[in-house]
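Exercise 7b. Backbone tokens:
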């Protein structure tokens, strides 16, 4: 009788080598800490809306697969975003799923994806998992687009997709519109897609939606996570109908649950509540930026998101010092050489920001 193989030996034989060498996406333990590391909306639904939503969710037919209600949500999101005529919209289980589906749909021999770096880690991860080449083009030291390098990379690699986060994560800035348009034009001339990622749109001073209708090769992606529904996991992608139809072919059936769908519809019906929360956070961002600019030995960059990037003398020491004082932020200093000694801070309520600033100042 042959020996039963160990789970380790089975893993070595059946799982891809590159997967074995990867690390799973890790969420920092936050129990007992003020959680300021993930750009979450700090506000919960008011009690009366909690009760109304609870009644609606309780009445859903959970014994049935999701049905036409998803089309109601697509129509509501199209109205909310003011989607151009002739465009269509598809739903994803957060932006992460949409990014994965784009990589899957574009996986032809020799295809590649391109994005400025440092940027959202899922662009590179989706390429790796799908066996695509990822080309990262460094930003300038002030986290602006390196136009010459971007255009040269597009000419050389002819990527299937160029991702442009607007604003960018983790740098929180909006890039120059004229530079973006020249990159969009160059990518269109070589026959590729551009995906504008507007995850932080509720906090940004500008949106690409007004220019979306000018192009036949540009898609715009958003999420309701920063809108205030991070726990619902719902993203959406808008673009020319013919392009969205092709991507939608690789979407898993029933990828949006009836609970997610109804929560999102409810939130859009009460969009003014969430707009008020975003306005309060934008005000707090101004206060936070002003206070950080006054701290000695701290460099802070402008922000159009609900996060602020700062450089401190010793990121590891400041991070651990803040955690010891009950505040959890994100140490991004190892993500890219341009982020050396940088921390990413979430914009919170007035009380949360006061506590975070005090912890940072004491930890410098």
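Sequence design result:
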């Amino acid at each position: 009788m042959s020996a039963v193989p160990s789970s380790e030996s089975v893993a070595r034989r059946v799982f891809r080598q590159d997967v074995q060498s990867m690390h799973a996406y890790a969420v920092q333990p936050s129990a007992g800490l003020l959680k300021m590391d993930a750009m979450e909306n700090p506000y919960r639904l008011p009690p009366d809306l909690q009760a109304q939503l609870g009644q609606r969710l309780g009445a859903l037919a959970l014994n049935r697969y999701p049905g036409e209600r998803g089309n109601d949500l697509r129509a509501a999101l199209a109205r909310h975003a003011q989607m151009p005529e002739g465009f269509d919209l598809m739903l994803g289980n957060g932006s992460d799923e949409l990014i994965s589906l784009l990589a899957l749909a574009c996986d032809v021999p020799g295809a590649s994806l391109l994005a400025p770096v440092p940027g959202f880690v899922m662009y590179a991860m989706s390429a790796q998992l799908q066996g695509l080449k990822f080309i990262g083009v460094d930003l300038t030291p002030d986290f602006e687009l390196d136009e010459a390098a971007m255009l040269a990379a597009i000419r050389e690699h002819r990527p299937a997709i160029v991702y442009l986060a607007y604003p960018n994560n983790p740098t929180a800035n909006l890039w120059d519109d004229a530079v973006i348009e020249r990159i969009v034009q160059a990518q269109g001339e070589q026959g590729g897609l551009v995906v504008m990622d507007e995850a932080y749109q509720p906090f940004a001073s500008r949106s690409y939606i007004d220019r979306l209708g000018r192009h036949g090769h540009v898609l715009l992606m958003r999420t309701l996570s920063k809108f205030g529904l991070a726990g619902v996991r719902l993203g959406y992608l808008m673009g020319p109908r013919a392009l969205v139809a092709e991507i939608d072919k690789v979407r898993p059936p029933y990828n949006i649950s009836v609970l997610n769908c109804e929560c999102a519809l409810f939130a859009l019906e009460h969009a003014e509540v969430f707009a008020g929360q975003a306005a309060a956070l934008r005000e707090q961002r101004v206060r936070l930026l002003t206070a950080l600019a006054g701290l000695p030995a701290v460099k802070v960059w402008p922000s159009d998101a609900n996060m602020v990037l700062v450089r401190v003398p010793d990121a590891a020491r400041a991070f651990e010092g803040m955690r010891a004082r009950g505040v959890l932020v994100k140490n991004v200093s190892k993500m890219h050489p341009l982020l050396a000694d940088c921390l990413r801070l979430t914009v919170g309520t007035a009380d949360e920001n006061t506590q975070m600033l005090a912890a940072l100042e004491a930890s410098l």
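Instructor comment: The mean pLDDT is 96. Residues 271-293 form the longest helix (23 residues).
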